[in-house]
Specification:
globular; single chain; eight-stranded parallel beta sheet; 42% helix; 8 strands; TIM Barrel; 261 residues; binds nickel (II) ion; alpha/beta
């Protein structure tokens, strides 16, 4: 069984002491591909450095809505340069977060739209973070295009909202909360997702699935997400693993096999 963790932050300081062991456990669990996602310029650079050093690791570079207020024009130029790297397979994570409102909403929207335009110019997919901002997210996406290559990461919205993203051609990625007892909305969303639009992720170090809830998350725990998605969708875990591997390859423009070294 091979698994693709399409969203993790191995560039987070949470892994400073034991990254090699974390990677080893991931690979032992079958997690052969990981997309390490940036949230500001330094973390994006770290994702890229990691991707250059490790087989099966890819990078996404981008500026999270939390950091939008600090973005300068020069930052966007640097992002654009990083996007040209062959192991940078996506721009992200970008989006809107009205739960924390760490940056003013208008600024979040401007920075989101500027990065959507960058991704389009570079021909790279987008990794989108949305929290309590569905209507404005869809409005911004529709203002910048009508079909996207990319993913709604750590999806937590309704079935109706999912439909709007699917219509924009986006993938929907399911993370650890699907294993939580109170995951009511996700229980409805997951079985309704078209199997060719489904991705899975850990969002490590956050949101560890059961039975690790509350602890530091890591890519090896992706198996628990695959198992729960399989249960909810009436598929085997192996089918979910293979399906999401192939969808991940299609979403991020990767071959379905890694070249032998
Ligand atoms: Ni994330």
């Amino acid at each position: 069984m091979r698994l693709f963790d399409t969203h993790c932050h191995l560039n987070d300081e949470a892994y400073q002491g034991d990254l090699a062991a974390v990677l080893q456990r991931a690979r032992a669990a079958g997690v052969a591909r990981m997309l390490v996602v940036g949230y500001d310029l330094p973390s994006s650079q770290q994702a890229l450095t990691l991707a250059e050093a490790e087989e099966g690791i890819y990078a996404a570079v981008g500026i999270h809505p939390h950091e939008a207020a600090a973005v300068t024009a020069a930052d966007l130029v640097r992002l654009e340069a990083m996007l040209a790297h062959p192991k940078v397979v996506a721009l992200g994570e970008i989006g809107l977060d009205y739960h924390y409102d760490h940056s003013p909403r208008g600024t979040q929207q401007e920075v989101f739209r500027a990065q959507l335009a960058l991704a389009r110019e570079a021909g790279k997919p987008v990794v989108i973070h949305g929290r309590e901002a569905h209507a404005d997210l869809v409005a911004a996406l529709k203002a910048e295009g009508d079909r996207y290559q990319g993913v709604m990461h750590c999806y937590s919205g309704s079935k109706e909202a999912a439909r709007a993203y699917l219509e924009l051609n986006l993938y929907i990625s399911v993370a650890g909360p699907v294993t939580f007892k109170n995951a009511r909305k996700l229980l409805e969303v997951v079985p309704a997702l078209p199997s060719d639009r489904l991705l899975i992720e850990t969002d490590a170090p956050y949101l560890a699935p059961q039975p690790w809830r509350g602890r530091r998350n890591e890519p090896a725990y992706l198996v628990a997400v695959a198992e729960r998605v399989a249960e909810l969708s009436g598929m085997t875990t192996e089918t979910v693993a293979e399906l999401t591997w192939e969808n991940g390859a299609a979403c991020f423009g990767l071959a379905t096999e890694d070249a032998a070294v």
